[in-house]
């Protein structure tokens, strides 16, 4: 069976796909969020930094899901109630006006993605025991009508608190306490 016509057809169709303009534009908001999510740590081995970060996540109530130390990746999650008094009040108000049942948030899964990568010098060579850490927090909210929505959490306090805990844990790891 000759696969060449199929491959040519697939390439033709792939060439017809248009990428929306400004899809990969770096905005000031994106740079600010990346700055919030990223920190640099010097003088610690990658494995020790991952261990310190895992300890910080567990202190925050997260359950570790995946850890691949060779790749510098760690994921964790925790379940929380997502019921909001304002949302419940709005649903009751809509129901009283005859608008029917309005779905409200019931629970959420907060997920964390953690990535460590080495810092490189101007020649592209990794600097010994110097790493960038990037963490992102997302949540998936389930509603009473079984619909869901997801969002990235952007509160600076969340990231500041996490990195303060990691810094304390890094200190304890370095002291072998």
TrEMBL record:
<protein>
    <recommendedName>
        <fullName>Lipoprotein</fullName>
    </recommendedName>
</protein>
């Amino acid at each position: 069976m000759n696969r060449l016509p199929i491959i040519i057809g697939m390439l033709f169709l792939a060439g017809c796909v248009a990428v929306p303009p400004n899809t990969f534009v770096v905005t000031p908001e994106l740079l600010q969020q990346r700055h919030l999510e990223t920190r640099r740590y010097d003088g610690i081995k990658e494995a020790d930094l991952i261990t310190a970060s895992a300890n910080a996540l567990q202190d925050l109530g997260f359950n570790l899901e995946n850890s691949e130390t060779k790749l510098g990746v760690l994921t964790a999650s925790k379940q929380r109630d997502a019921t909001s008094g304002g949302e419940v009040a709005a649903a009751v108000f809509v129901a009283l006006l005859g608008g029917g049942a309005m779905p409200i948030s019931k629970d959420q899964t907060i997920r964390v993605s953690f990535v460590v990568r080495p810092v490189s010098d101007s020649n592209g060579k990794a600097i010994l025991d110097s790493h960038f850490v990037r963490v992102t927090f997302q949540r998936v909210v389930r509603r009473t009508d079984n619909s869901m929505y997801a969002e990235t959490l952007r509160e600076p306090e969340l990231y500041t608190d996490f990195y303060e805990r990691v810094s304390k844990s890094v200190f304890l790891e370095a002291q072998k306490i």
